[in-house]
Amino acid sequence: MISEQAWADAQCLWDFQQMRHELRPCSVAMGLGSHDLGVADVAVDMYRRGLVPLIVFTGATSRTTRERMPRGEAEHYRERALELGMPADAVLVEPNARNTGENIQFSRDLLVERGVDVSSVLLVSKPYEERRAYATARKLWPEVDVVSASAPITLAKYVDSIRDPHLVFDMLVGAQQRLLVYPQQGFLVEQDVPSAVIAAYERLCAGGFTNRLITRG
Predict the structure, then answer these.
(1) Is 69 a residue whose pLDDT tops 80?
(2) Contact 74, 106 (CB under 8 A)
(3) DSSP run (H or E) holding 148
(4) Element (H, E) at 102
(5) Cα three-residue angle 180-186-217, rounded to 5 degrees
(6) What are 184-200's pLDDT values in tens digits?
(7) Residue 34: its pLDDT value, please?
């Protein structure tokens, strides 16, 4: 059973991670691989709304997805998009990235290779990783305009959809830790983090939601 305090702290991190960017037309959408097929759904919706002419799905597998998505996250995303009616020629697959930095770098390289002119990217991620994805893209691809997007869903409904609250809380904590420590390692731009968010993060760590933390070296 997860305590009310833990739920409140997770909500604090959830709210902070959401960028609430105003959606606007972009050169390409980039769907960041994960355990959540909802990322593909959102990217397809952006295409249908005329916000992007092309989608890149990026991601190999991880310990979370190797059983759920044995053919690779990007490939499962592509299959989902085609099921939803996406034309195959409007979908590119980048199958090798194993972290957010590689998602950005490898997708950028693929788009250059394909001769796609990119001035802006609609970055589609899980709802609790919008800010981390944005900060990574701003560091690694500073010359493009970045718009963050995710499924418009509450924390409670998202947990119900994933059916694994501990996984979601662990992921929230892991995303927040990376926002705090990765700027010093050159992986993403620094973000101002309110003290209330830091306190919520520390309480969740103390409560045992540490399965997605990285070791500080």
Answers:
(1) no
(2) no
(3) strand 145-149
(4) helix 100-113
(5) 65
(6) 999 999 999 999 999 99
(7) 80
**Which distant-in-sequence residues (6+ apart) come within 8 Å of 204 by Cβ?**
6, 9, 10, 13, 169, 172, 173
Give the list of residues 6+ apart from residue 104 with CB closer than 8 angstroms, or none. Answer: 30, 136, 137, 140, 141
Cα 101 → chain centroid:
11
How far is 156 from 10, CA to CA, in rounded Å?
10
Length of the chain: 217
DSSP secondary structure string for all residues of 56-90: EEE----TTTTTT-TT-HHHHHHHHHHHTT--GGG
* Helices then strands, each counted (H, E), the chain: 8, 5
Residues with Cβ within 8 Å of residue 205, at least 6 apart in sequence: 173, 213
What digits encode the pLDDT tens for the residues 168-181? 999 999 999 999 99
Helix axes 130-140, 100-113, angle to 10 degrees: 50
Q: In the structure encoding, which two tokens stand for residue 130, read together?
A: 């919008």
pLDDT at 130: 95
pTM of structure: 0.89
Mind listing the pLDDT tens digit for each residue in 119-154? Answer: 999 999 999 999 999 999 999 999 999 999 999 999
Structure tokens at 88: 């195959």
